[in-house]
Amino acid sequence: MLNDPKNYSKNIKPFQPRVPYFMNCLKAFFVGGLICLAGQCIQTGYIYFFHFTKQSAGDPTAATLILISALMTGFGFYDKIARFAGAGSIVPVTGFANSITSAALEHKNEGIVLGIATNLFSLAGAVIVFGVVSAAVLGIIRLFIEQIF
For the chain, is the Cβ count within 10 Å smaller at the N or the C terminus? Predict the structure, then answer.
C-alpha cells in the first residue's frame, strides 16, 4: 500500500539527513553557558562597581541582558547565534527578549504604533498571561494546602 505510514517511514528513511544530536546539544550547552557567564560577569560588575548586594543585582542584570539581546536582534547578530546554538540561545532570558524584538521588527514598516507597539507583545503576551494565571492557581493551591495542614 502506498498510503501505509509504516511503508512511508521505511521508504523515506534513506533520504533523510542524519541529525547531529550530540553536536547540537554540545553547541546549545556551551552557548547557553556563555550567555549565563556573561550574565554572571554583568552581575559581578553591578556588585563591584555600583555596590549592589547579591540580592539586588539580579534585576539590573536581567534588564541589561534583555537590552543587549534586543540590540543584538535589531542589528541581526542574535539570529546568527540562534542558528548556530539552537536551544542554547532560546532558553535564557535573552531568547525571550529576542522573540519580543523579532516580532516587533517584522512589522516595523506598518509604523510605530500599529506595527511595532501592536506586535511587540504578540508572542510575549501569551507567556505573560500564562505566567500570571499559573502563579495565581498555584497560590490558591498553596493557600488550601496551608489551611489543611
Answer: C
